[in-house]
Design brief:
Helices cover 74% and strands 0% of the residues. By secondary structure, it is mostly helical.
Length: 98
């Protein structure tokens, strides 16, 4: 019967844990990016024109156009606000009322 070195077993198990964690984190990152619809789609779902969407987002019209053309990526806070508008399309209109 072959006996295995306990240190080898420990290191092997740790390696598997790290590799599994890295794969899961990479998968979660890809999934979160895929779950976020494009800015244009969010704007259309909310029923806003570009100038209204820009005002609700607190950015310029040129920023929204740049996002929609995929020349630039929205900031983290803009992405979070878009996620909120995506989950509640009426939120964009509510932001315009203030």
């Amino acid at each position: 019967m072959e006996t295995k070195d306990p240190m080898f077993e420990l290191l092997s198990n740790l390696e598997q844990i790290v590799l599994t964690r890295d794969v899961l984190q990479a998968g979660a990152l890809i999934e979160s990016e895929a779950a976020m619809p494009e800015p244009k789609r969010i704007r259309e779902i909310s029923g806003m024109q570009i100038d209204e969407f820009a005002l609700a987002m607190g950015v310029s019209v040129s920023s929204v156009k740049s996002w929609e053309a995929q020349r630039t990526k929205p900031s983290g806070s803009a992405q979070k606000l878009m996620q909120l508008i995506h989950s509640n399309p009426y939120l964009g209109r509510q932001l315009l009322e203030r």
